[in-house]
Design a protein that fits this description.
The protein is of the alpha/beta class and 376 residues long. It has 13 helices and 13 strands. The chain binds pyridoxal-5'-phosphate.
Length: 376
């Protein structure tokens, strides 16, 4: 037994090192430069959209995409209750009000039927809905076949929170490309990392230009630094963009490793009653995190017990995101709930899923889980 096994640590090596060094040596040590331009181009091509703007975080991307769609005070933005807090916080930054919707228990993704019910209610109340922000949960694309028509029916634009889903597809279409804008994250634990970073991607080049302008202190194209509105300092460093380009080169390989790991977990749990993987029926997921859902009655044990057993062997796991309606900061927010997110929070567990896991770390993790389940 040697060393802690983390949930999803950064997977970086000699390629990232060489890209970073050459960016440093080029003298472009600033939040702009050729690496930023190339990273934006390459990522837009990968997602299959016209344009992209590289930013300091995915959270900044959500903030700017919502601002670009006109979100502001007096308006509503619909967000899944099962998500990382950044999705909701970005709404609050704009002055709009986040309203939460529950998820599909099978996938953890936004429930399209509940979404329709909520948009109809908001419509009857005369509320202005600036956007719906579906999240591609743990790397599985939301059900856009049903979500997009519902949003179109009410004339509400979609901002896809694809922070966890770079490299995923649904029916052959890439994550990030489903809405008016998509947002990606390159935080340290995501599928690719720049240590911290994010991107807004879109076919709407004006929207991307608007985000770029706001991210650059809303500086007008004049030598004397003219500003007609309040902007932000949200651009990505050229050094970090270089790391991102190296990571993007290795994306397919890293996705492949996460998928093979999920297959191993699936095989291990297949014969066990009361345990399922949180997953979508489309094979296009990048498998960012593999989540098991445990029915304690059928399995004879709880997800939390497996978590404690693994922690005792220095193996990190994590519950699924605590739903937003359970967060003290959003306890008073409006929410349309079915109980599905609460159930997944109680019964779900994210297992070590990193693309850099060694064969021996994988074997140790599987053996430790197996020993726990056998003893039950
Ligand atoms: C990671 C994440 C974000 C935020 O991205 P940062 O780059 O960390 O700001 C937003 N939404 C979801 C669903 C995420 O998982």
């Amino acid at each position: 037994m040697s060393g802690r096994i983390w949930l999803s640590p950064p997977d970086v090596g000699p390629l990232e090192e060489s890209y970073l060094l050459s960016a440093l040596r080029s003298g472009w040590v600033a939040p702009l430069g050729p690496e930023v331009d190339a990273f934006e181009r390459e990522l837009a091509r990968r997602v299959g959209v016209a344009d992209a703007v590289a930013l300091s975080s995915g959270t900044a991307g959500l903030h700017l995409a919502l601002l670009a769609l006109g979100a502001g005070p007096g308006q509503v933005v619909v967000v899944p209750t099962l998500t990382f807090v950044a999705t909701a916080n970005a709404v609050v930054y704009t002055g709009a009000e986040p309203v939460f919707v529950d998820c599909d228990p099978a996938t953890g993704n936004l429930d399209p039927a509940l979404l329709r019910q909520l948009l109809a209610e908001l419509d009857r109340e005369g509320r202005t809905v600036a956007a719906v922000v579906p999240v591609d949960m743990f790397g599985s694309c939301a059900d856009y076949d049903r979500i997009l028509p519902v949003c179109a029916e009410f004339g509400v634009p979609v901002v896809e929170d694809a922070a966890e889903a770079l490299g995923s597809t649904r029916r052959g279409r890439a994550a990030g490309s489903f809405g008016r804008a998509g947002v990606l994250s390159f935080n340290g634990n995501k599928i690719i990392t720049t240590s911290g970073g994010g991107m807004v991607v879109s076919d709407d080049t004006e929207l991307v230009a608007r985000c770029r302008h706001l991210a650059t202190q809303a500086r007008q194209p004049a030598v004397h630094y003219e500003h007609a509105e309040v902007g932000y300092n949200y651009r990505l460093s050229n050094l970090l963009a270089a790391i991102g380009r190296a990571q993007l080169h290795r994306l397919d390989l890293m996705v492949d490793r996460r998928r093979r790991l999920r297959e191993k977990y699936a095989k291990l749990f297949a014969a066990r009653p009361g345990v399922r993987l949180l997953a979508d029926d489309d094979a296009g997921a990048n498998c960012w995190l593999t989540v098991v859902v445990v029915d304690p009655g059928a399995a004879g044990w709880r997800a939390g017990e497996l978590a404690a057993h693994l922690a005792g062997q220095d193996i990190e796991t994590r519950p699924v995101w605590q739903p937003m309606h359970r967060q003290p900061v959003y306890a008073c927010a409006r929410a349309l709930l079915s109980g599905a997110a609460d159930q997944l929070f109680a019964d779900g567990l994210a297992l070590p899923s990193g693309s850099g896991m060694t064969e021996s770390q994988i074997a140790r993790t599987l053996e430790t889980i197996d020993a726990f389940v056998e003893a039950k």
